[in-house]
Amino acid sequence: MVVVMERNSTQAQIEAVNARLGNLGFHAQLIRGIKRIVIGAVGDCPTNDLHALQQMPGVEKIIPIMKPYKLVSRECKHDNTVINVRGINIGSSNVTVIAGPCAVENRQQLITAARQVKAAGGHIIRGGAFKPRTSPYSFQGLEEEGLKILREASLETGLPVVTEVIDEASLEMALDYVDIVQIGARNMQNFRLLKAVGQIDKPVLLKRGMSATIEEWLMAAEYIMSGGNGQVILCERGIRTFETATRNTLDLSAVPLVKRLSHLPVIVDPSHGTGDRGLVQPMSLAAVAAGADGLIVEMHPEPAKALSDGPQSLTPGELEQVMIQLAMLTPVLGRQLSLGHVSRESAWKGVRL
Fold first, then answer.
1. Distance separating alpha carbons of residues 187 and 30, to the nearest angstrom
2. d(C-alpha 273, C-alpha 228), whole Å
3. 3-state secondary structure 149-185
């Protein structure tokens, strides 16, 4: 349920309600909205105790939540959650673009890619230090050395960085180096890992599992939020279907649906969603048109030489074109896209429609 506090409720009243919920056996979490402060409470409550709770000073009303995901639900928090990552807002009217190579291969490759992401107007750098691969013989990542290179790239460009963690050990290692931790599709239902990231004070980018339903995806986010970490970014990255022409089937209908069901920001990964760099640009535009709060795309300085996911990685020039076309689209949708130092006038000059 959600306990909605009155607009003029005092801190003492909020603490008293929170304490009462704890005594009743509820797991309670304070959620501050734009206009209201609410307390999300998960547990069972006898009718008499519920009535007494509703009579407490500062309580406006109590709303039961029928969905299995409580804290994630739009019923719990009406306002959109906006996650700030070193001055970059994810979940607001701005469109955020995360870009970079699938894997950190060496220092030169990643530093070059980071500079190219910034030059194109990107906002956050991505790069894998730990690479869970289908084949045990494929490149598995540089681990802590890769994390150090990511941190160096962040310090040079001023851009935040995100990387995937695959277990509790890699999570502990990554916390000192990155700004956002990513839970990949294969680990979406790794409940021990979800509980672990629920205890950290960093944003978590949660990718949808390859065969996960919307409800299963949102329940995975509930694991994180129930641990106390409300900084969850949902990522649609394509699901496995009968279609073989693309790597996955990018489910763009999930974007407006999830934004209706949940207050959390939703971004889209058109690179893994299609597996084809020629489809990344049109699906990026379609994702933003569908209401996505941002994109995470793969870009490599030399895709033909990439150690992983070369066929779906954009070239630096292709990333720049995506950014330019997004800059043209977003005003039509009432959204905004910052291109960094790239002027809107110069962006319009080189555009290819």
1. 28
2. 30
3. HHHHHHHHHCCCEEEEECCHHHHHHHCCCCCEEEECH
Question: How far, in Å, CA of 335 to CA of 23, rounded?
Answer: 45
Cβ contact 152:107 at 8 Å: yes
d(CA 262, CA 69): 9
Whether 274 and 311 have beta carbons less than 8 Å apart is answered as no
62, burial (CB in 10 Å: exposed 0-12, middle 13-18, buried 19+): middle
Residues of the chain with CATH 3.20.20.70: 83-349
Nearest CA to 189 out of 163, 161, 219 is that of 219
**What are the beta bridge partners of residue 61?**
4
CB-hemisphere CA count at 13 Å for 337? 30
Instruction: Kindly report the pTM of this predicted structure.
Output: 0.88
Q: Per-residue pLDDT tens for 184-230?
A: 999 999 999 999 999 999 999 999 999 999 999 999 999 999 999 99
Residues 182, 117: Cα–Cα separation, whole Å: 19
Q: What is the CATH number of domain 83-349?
A: 3.20.20.70
Domain with CATH 3.30.70.1140 in the chain: 2-63
**DSSP-derived secondary structure for 263-324:** SS-EEE-HHHHHS-HHHHHHHHHHHHHTT-SEEEEEB-SSGGG-SS-GGGPBPHHHHHHHHH
Closest C-alpha to 159, from 25, 260, 299, 46: 299
Q: What fold, for 2-63?
A: Alpha-Beta Plaits (3.30.70)
Burial of 12 (0-12, 13-18, 19+ CB in 10 A): exposed
Q: What is the mean pLDDT of residues 45-50?
A: 71
